[in-house]
Write a structure and sequence with these properties.
about 160 residues, about 0% strand, mainly alpha, CHAD domain-containing protein, about 55% helix, globular, single chain
Length: about 160
């Protein structure tokens, strides 16, 4: 008999472990590290399936990460791309150099960029593990299955005669 109360804790633990794996992946050249296969943790390997060899692993990793990163808020997606070495302008050897480049581009302190990195990796791990969160519809937008306001009966009733 499984304890359904432990499932959220297990999911949180997996997301936390995946975040640590992503953080390790950011070091050095990120996804372009020469020892990429050795640097992939068990959860990343699980999400990649049977990736053999650095080139195959790299291509599959990039293909897996790209849409997940794009599901993040724009500012956090940029931080994640830079940290992982996926941004075209940031192929520096060290994570610190990439983050310093981003801090200059964003006109922010390097510590602020590092905090955003932590936030982006938390969300990226959750997105990879559980899928992207669905945002509520914008204010005023019809909900799924609901009729738009302009088509409601009140909007199309004939005027009352007094």
């Amino acid at each position: 008999m499984s304890d359904h109360h432990s499932e959220p804790a297990l999911r949180a633990a997996r997301a936390s472990s995946l975040r640590r794996e992503l953080r390790m992946l950011c070091r050095g050249r990120g996804v372009y590290a020469s020892d990429l296969t050795a640097r992939l943790g068990p959860l990343l390997k699980e999400h990649l399936g049977n990736a053999r060899g650095d080139h195959g692993s790299r291509a599959r990793l990039i293909a897996m990460l790209t849409p997940q990163i794009e599901a993040l808020p724009q500012d956090l997606a940029l931080v994640a791309r830079v940290a992982l070495g996926l941004h075209e302008g940031t192929r520096q050897r060290f994570l610190r150099d990439r983050l310093d480049w981003l801090a200059g581009r964003m006109a922010r302190d390097a510590r602020t960029v590092r905090r955003r990195l932590d936030e982006s990796l938390d969300l990226l791990a959750e997105t990879i593990e559980h899928g992207p969160a669905t945002a509520p519809p914008p204010h005023g937008a019809p909900r799924t299955g609901a009729r738009p306001r302009c088509l409601s009966g009140a909007a199309h009733r004939p005027p009352r005669r007094h």
